[in-house]
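From the pipeline queue, job 12 of 40. The input is one protein chain; the requested action is below.

Action: predict structure.
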Amino acid sequence: MFNALTGLKQKTSNFAGTTVDKKSGSFLLSDQTRVHLTDLPGTYSIYPKSADERVATDILLNKNNIDYPDRVVVVVDAVNLKRSLLFCTQIIDLGFPTIVVLNMVDVAEKKNLKIDVNQLSQLLSVPVVVINARNREGLDKLKEIISNKAEKQFSKFYQINPAVQEFLDELKPIFDDNNSYANLVKVHRTGVATHQLQNIYKIFEKYEYQALKLQQRETIERFKKIDYIVVKCISKINVEKASTYLNIKADKLLSHPIIGMLFFIIIMLVIFQSVFSIAEYPKSIIEDQFNNLSLYLSNVLPQNWFNGLITEGVIPGISGLLTFLPQIAILFAFLSLLEDSGYMARVSFIMDSFMRKFGLSGKSIVPLMGGMACAVPSIMATRNIENVRDRLITLLVTPLMSCSARLPVYSLLISLFVKPKLLCGVISLQALMLLMMYLIGFISALALALILKIFIKNEAKSVFVMELPIYKWPSFRNLRLNVYERSKTFVTEAGKIILIVSVILWFLGSFGPGDQLQKINKKYEAFEKSTNNLTQELKSQKQAELIEHSYAGHFGKFIEPVIKPLGFDWKIGIALLTSFAAREVFVGTMSTIYSIGNDDDQSNLREKMLLEKNKITGAFVYSKATALSLMFFYAFALQCSSTLAVVYKETRNIKWPLIQFLIMGFMAYASSFIVFHLMS
């Protein structure tokens, strides 16, 4: 509905943890009045139990907040009317001019339910409008109601006990609010101004105030009235129950602890198979086009430093990223399908009992699965987890899940040592290897969570409560927007970094201290004069010597002793350092390094890496041991500055991102060392 009204493209889904922060937009009414619309995270009650719910309630209770609304539109699920009306009636009692939007009425009818909209409006004493956001039905009616003049209304649904009312009357001067129910809610909150606390505590003692008992009593009394409304407004109709029957049958299988888990593994295998098989054709086209572009510009542009910057720096760096875009888009598409269909909530359900053994909850699977796309929004999605310890552990281990930034690295390295053969004529060995890397990330996240569970104490008992949405056909528009926006963000954010890194790397790889590079050029010029032409072997040798004696080469040689035990040479060392800004920079860095001085060699990066030899031993640099070692390093290393920033933002404590960085750094180095020496 938010996207339909504002024309924006915010991510939407029908499972908990999708929207964990406010989103803002605007739209015009028929009289050209511009309306500012703020979409708040979903909450079941005005009394928040998780961080995302607090985002919503903090705005609704603070008149000084810039997003404090003139009126509130409450979206109510027609299928779960009773559950939705609790929060709705609380909003009404807070005094906001309220509009109830009844969504998913078509689904309710398929479940044999019919809602009397007029009766519901009369009993709530607020306007009720039916919409279908996907088809944009009812939006004009909603805008019309929004444009009507609305007056403030005061508590009328929940009748406050006279004894409690006397207590609240004494709080009115402190809160400067005549709405008794609003003051009651504020009392329950911990966000009371420091200068108010002393006076409030005195009133607490005078009336022997007990917050929990009052909340329980209020909830019971509200549901008594809500039950009456539901009975009056909902009637049974005779319709085909096939969809409901299929939902129940599907849940028996997909929510089964064993069958459900096997089904989930099969889905993941299908995803990774698609990442390699479907993406191969567009990937080859993109790679060929960039090679042709680089060759064309090399011949057209003047033979000077600018030619080298464009053809050996910028184009190879960007090409290294965009070549893997089809694979990333396919991954995003599958994840969006799982989210939009309602399946992700089932994954949370079947994983809950298993995850609890590791200090996590079933809700942790949402950010962990989201970590396969990007850790940053996934860490923010932990706000949906009520238990403080569960949430902290989840956000600390989420970066171990293999995100889309690791996918180009894995794809490149797997293609070096795993042949594209089919196992049993169906499953690609490369897909199995990729699945293994993702499983390693998940298993290591669980292992680290188990360790953190010992050191981080649990202050409250964790209870898993999650509403299972109905299964539905994913919206093609929603799918298209999600894939487009996620891919666009990946390219633009990573592209900025890669462009800068490529330019810096080209400079460091094309220039060097002293006159060593000039001597190398003169040496090979002499060879060329004597033989009339340089062989390909001599050209490769020249390029290797030039980059080895450049600034980049000197820097790589400096750090080589530290990474040599992992099977890495100085070129890999440069890529490791540059990719600390973002993991996906690794491929762009390698593309730039292997393109410097190779303006007439248009072979792709994989072929160049396969031909790379150790100058001293003559052995190929990228053996199976080195490639696996490098993959394990990237599986664990926290090479993402954005992730560290968002962990600090969510925890408000610098120690947690530091601990996270050091632990994952140790895991990366140790695992890489062990794998290299076991495989050598």
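Job complete. The mean pLDDT is 79.
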